[in-house]
Amino acid sequence: MSASTWGGTDLLAEENYPLPLLKLLLKQMMMRFGADGACMALYDEAIGQMRVRVHTRLKRARAAAANSSSVGSEQAPYPTETARRRATVKLNMDDEETWEVTAISPASHHPRSQSAATDDIVDVSPQQCELFVPGSTYAQSQDLIGSCWHNNEAFVMRHDNYMKHFRADQSTPPHCDVTPAYYLVVPIRESTLVDEACGEPRPAAMLGVVVLYYYVEPIGVTPVYVQKQRAEALNYSERIALALQNCTLRLQDERLRRKQRRTSEYLQLLQNISSVFPTSVKLSDLVENIYHFVSRVVDVSGMLLTLYDRDLDRLYDIFAISHGQRVEGLAEKPTVRLKTERPVWWHETQHEKRKLLFSPANDTEKAHIYQELLTGVWGDQRHTRSFLLLPMKMFNRVIGTICLTSMQSNAYQHEEIQVLETMVQIVTVSIENTKLYERDRAILNDARQREAQLAAINSALQSISSVLNVTELLNNLVESVAAITKVELCVFFEPSASSEELIAHALYAPSSVQMVDDGSGMPIITPPKKGEPDKLISLIQLPFKGTFLEHMADEGFFYLDPPKLEELARSSNDGGKIFLGEMGIEHILMVPMSYQTEFIGFLAVPTPSGNRFFRPKDVGTVLAICAQAASAIRNAQLFEQREEAYARLERMDKLKDEFLVTASHELRTPLTAISGYSSQLKRQSARATSQTVLRFATKISVAAQQLSDLVASITEAAQIGPGDRKMDLHIEAVQVLAAAEVAVNMLTHNSEHMISLNIDPQLWINGDAPRVRQVLTNLLENATKYSPPGTMIQVTATSLLLSEVEPLLSDDQADPTLLLDNEDISVILVRVKDKGEGILAADQQKIFEKFVRAPRSLTTPVRGSGLGLYICRRFVEAMNGKLWLEQSIANEGSTFSFYLPQVSSPVDTVE
């Protein structure tokens, strides 16, 4: 794989819109409006101007224009079947512009526009026409394109007026093999329909401008027709805008997929290099793998690998590439230096301890300061255009450096540097492990034990680096460390979002509980699926901010003794107190884990009973695993963030499609009714009776009300917004029976159902009265819509404890921490049961999302926006309750339930 694969130019970024697509869109618009030629200019963000992308005309347009001019205007090639009449039309581009045109039928009736469908288009070269040359740019108000951009309106202009307004300062007119007679200029405005539907309206941006031109003066109609043609051109340009926006979305999606593929390849390369040790303990093998890895990721013209032996206090240059050629003999006889001979290297690595990136050829001052780094065994690198130094850090110690140079400018980008830093950390761990292995190899009795331990490390590292799910990775980490140190408990703590406390994310402890059915009828607690966080484990929390743990986060490792454990327990939550006080823990090894300078969390390993400390080699093993695990955790977090971003993008795209389908489906019916009955009134106005007028007006009013209700639902859903937005609620005591009676009276559906209210007048809830009535009204509306006429709809209310309601919750509303976060309070459970056709199991959770209706409901004549249940659930949750589909049986009906906290009946309050 060449370096250009990683650092090369993104071709998609250079060509936002494919040229064949632009030509096709332009050709279709020319055919639609019978134009002889056209050009399209699109906004270029790099320069902030409109740039002409394509300029085309019909292949036979030039011959047709020449024929028209030779035979005269009386034999123009645009014959019509209707009689012509002369008229003077003022085109309101400005007050001075006036021309004389001939009135005809619309352009769509022209034989010319019909024949254009079969006429090919050709590109117009600058030699043929100096107007609208591809690649030329226009600022606002400059020429026709800039004027349309500035005014954001379509307009028509004759060529002579164009020359007078925009080319008056030119001594010679622009060269054209055929001079256009007039122009139709149309802006391309960005579509903001989805933003408006989501309640986030914004001004439509200008994507570009289309200029249509004609070689023969038009035979037009009245000013009304000219205005209509402008409006039609604007409407047609919306199709072009949508096509361009869809093309942009597809290109963005392709970029994201390419980035994901690149990330996967990075991770595969990292996994390959991580497997080098301990399968091979040869330093030469490790160095070769480093060089092959680096050369596959970035462009390399020079490379120098330097190691520092702290025992001998010496620097060793063990590998070098000079101007693309390997420096032979260093593996067998490395260059040895004292640290006093390399003061710049020593300062940068042992004091600064950070990467160094600059261009020696362009930054001569830095090249002079770091001359020591740029010269030596790998030749003179001061003329290179890119230089990168990466320190090989093991916790707070630097054991060496990797220096890279390239003749390319900006050869080392942020993403590639991150991959190289990860590789350096893996290599650093490998080199340190190599040293440990070589030291212990001399002791025969310890060799087998060390070999087994290294195998365990390799297994642990493989299990950690082979997954990209953060929770699964951490579970593998704690289980591997527990197995290596032979302990029965190991926990990983990560800082909360506010960094106020440490929250347990993964815990390893062999379970002694066997899950069996004890006959109580209670559901068996199932463990979370692999890769999903355990909510019960997350209840273990320790204080962090302002405690000694925060100050010790930069240490290599430390132990917590009983006094420290008691101090933490006093400030911990209930879960933390149980963990520290009732688990029999006496001493804990705490290993801070960081990726570069970013703190990730603590690995907590309690010592075996009776022991205060672990053996040094066990601690070293844990530290080595944690060093690589930190990189793996960070990589997994980045991968999940990208996966979530891609999922959000897919969700937004799906939501857009669902909204467009739902909106068009629901808006069409009332709009059709309004249009149809209005047309009937118009045609029958002379002979319509008052009863007919009243009937048509009633139909129009009903359709308008349906349209108003749909818009109101969309607006209300947009105002509710995301789940973390606070609502303006007035919480008070609400009588359930009174709210239900008001809801029945507020039903707008012409119901032929029997509604039964089985509610005790003494039941009161704590909520917002209008919202409670709205929830009941929406649930009753749904029940009456989808239940056969004459059936019974039952509304019941029951006083229960929260623990009694919890087993009734649906899967999407179930929460094992519900009773831990709340007391076992009394609640009122309200049920609305109908006799409808039921809801399919696959749709029972989706119906609570925005713009979602069950598939079978789309085949019924009942109208709906798919927002009612979404709004109801948000209202109930804002009042500290839950709403769910408790039961649904095909062709037997559904039961929707919700609960809210119960309160006592107020003495002096009448609902």
Distance separating the two termini: 76 Å
Percent strand: 15-25%
Which structural class best describes the helix and strand composition? alpha+beta
Tell me which CATH architecture of the largest domain applies here: 2-Layer Sandwich
CATH class of the largest domain: Alpha Beta
CATH topology of the largest domain: Beta-Lactamase
Quaternary assembly: single chain
Total of domains: 5
How many strand elements?
A: 29
Can you give the helix content as a percent range? 40-55%
Approximate shape: flat
**Radius of gyration computed on alpha carbons:** 38 Å
Pick out the low-confidence regions.
1-14, 71-118, 521-525
Biggest sheet descriptor: 7 strands, antiparallel
What is the typical, i.e. mean, pLDDT?
79
Q: What is the CATH superfamily label of the largest domain?
A: GAF domain
Summed up, the helix count is 27
Catalytic activity: ATP + protein L-histidine = ADP + protein N-phospho-L-histidine
Domain Histidine kinase: 662-904
Region (Disordered): 63-82
InterPro entries: GAF (IPR003018), GAF-like_dom_sf (IPR029016), HATPase_C_sf (IPR036890), HATPase_dom (IPR003594), His_kinase_dom (IPR005467), HisK_dim/P_dom (IPR003661), HisK_dim/P_sf (IPR036097), Sig_transdc_His_kin-like_C (IPR004358)
